[in-house]
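Take a minute with the sequence and fold tokens given here and flag any structure token that looks odd. Thanks in advance.
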Amino acid sequence: MNRRLLLGLLALAPATALAQDGPQPKLPTEPLTIITRDGKRHEFQVEMALEPQQQMTGLMFRPSVGPNEGMLFDWGQPRESSMWMRNTITSLDMLFITQDGTVLRIAERTVPHSLASISSNGPVRATLELAAGTAERLNIRVGDKVEQRIFGNTR
């Protein structure tokens, strides 16, 4: 999450949100498909983090993420995305996805609890968090396509 946005959200957040010590309830899920360069289609059910509070909490305190699950952070419009692993106890793969559903960048096997910024390195519409190792296991690479309703490219 972009640092200025994060600081702004923190200033607006109630004290109870800042003292969060457990995972947020599971968010509504939607289908998402990743099409790799070899034409394989990989289906996921992802939680939709649409509101600022949902996005601030993300997958914090979740003990695991299933192999066909994840969380999609919809930023609403293309922008720089910076994420971190604060209070995230399991390693993740982060896919930064442009407005048209193209994977711009992948941060693989992020470090649990790290406060280091993980940047999209360019404007993206969304960030997808998956279980660590998913990108390698499914051969997901930069340039692959993501189909989901927010990109307007679902079948």
Remarks:
- The mean pLDDT is 89.
